[in-house]
Amino acid sequence: MVNYRNLGRSGLKITEITYGNWLTHGSQVENETATACVRAALDAGITTFDTADVYANTAAESVLGEALKGERRQSLEIFTKVYWPTGPQGANDSGLSRKHVLESIDGSLQRLQTDYVDLYQAHRFDHGTPLEETMQAFADVVRQGKALYIGVSEWTADQIRAGQELATDLGFRLISNQPQYSMLWRVIEGEVVPTSAELGLSQIVWSPVAQGVLTGKYKPGEPAPAGSRGTDEKGGARMIGRFLEQQETLARVQELRPVADELGLTMAQLAVAWVLQNPNVASAIIGASRPEQVAENVKASGVTIPAELLERIDTVLGDSVVTDPAETAKSSPRR
After folding, report:
1. Burial of 134 (0-12, 13-18, 19+ CB in 10 A)
2. Burial class (CB in 10 A: 0-12, 13-18, 19+), 245
3. How far apart are the C-alpha atoms of 249 and 66, rounded to whole Å?
């Protein structure tokens, strides 16, 4: 079964493996398969589920809500996010304005078929809205009982610090950040992680297997396997393209197989276990297009990777690892 960790400096406990439905539900897989994957997650001991209103233009929330219907609500931790445009994409259909935040939480709750979410997250930093307005809107969402906790996603260290200061003044706290993080993408380590640890936030990391690259199925000089994310024209291929263009990186990933073998893990399990070695990481988000993928990936929970193997991973990947903290700021568009 899956271990639990506290989320930030709060009393909320979440499974260290979170089931997410970013590129799958309402898009890549049929609803019946999506529901089967959610059931597999529950059977494996996962109680934490992450989604966003923008995923499949709200369809992912609806699929997740239907899949979880009938489960004891108090036994689940349901997360969603707000920022990106949904619907007709009018002038106020995106960002973190008071109008968009308060309207979006109501839409998310309706689609998820719940009275509240455990964690409501700012999906990006909004350069077009005063931070004071955004944090006041989140404070009101909490006071209305529509969200129990507030988090952010892909915020820089300075943005997190400013947000936490305002949140504290308004009577609540930011408890999490949701960044991309993997063996190959470590841009949060230099600034975001130390700041988060200081201020009481944990990381809920997405893409721990680097869009599937760290599974080892993408080999240098060979086309992407049929049916893989690298061939998905609905968005998956675009997201993974950055890694697939780097043949040397693909070759170095293949050299990680002996490390996985030594630990008795698959390559995917090694990748998920690796991010969980960071004490500031509360949970790693996994997705699935087949139920058996969930059952396999949860085996990364509770794994300890010895220091010598962590050093060997660093040596193998070398300069293929991206560490520049400036990459985080690039993810929040300036409108």
Report:
1. buried
2. exposed
3. 40
List the chain pLDDT tens, one digit each, 335 residues.
899 999 999 999 999 999 998 866 555 567 788 899 999 999 999 999 999 999 989 999 999 999 999 999 999 999 999 999 988 888 999 999 999 999 999 999 999 999 999 999 999 999 999 999 999 999 999 999 999 999 999 999 999 999 999 999 999 999 999 999 999 999 999 999 999 999 999 999 999 999 999 999 888 876 666 555 554 555 555 666 667 778 899 999 999 999 999 999 999 999 999 999 999 999 999 998 889 999 999 999 999 999 999 999 999 999 999 999 999 999 988 86
* C-alpha separations of 217 from 37, 92, 211, 297 in Å: 21, 42, 11, 15
- Residue 224: CB atoms within 10 A of its CB come to 19
Catalytic amino acids?
55
pTM: 0.93
Q: Report how far residue 21's alpha carbon sits from residue 65's, in angstroms, rounded to the nearest whole number.
A: 12
Domain locations in the chain as residue ranges: 4-210+276-304+320-329
Query: Domain 4-210+276-304+320-329: which CATH class?
Result: alpha beta
Q: Which amino acid is at 189?
A: E
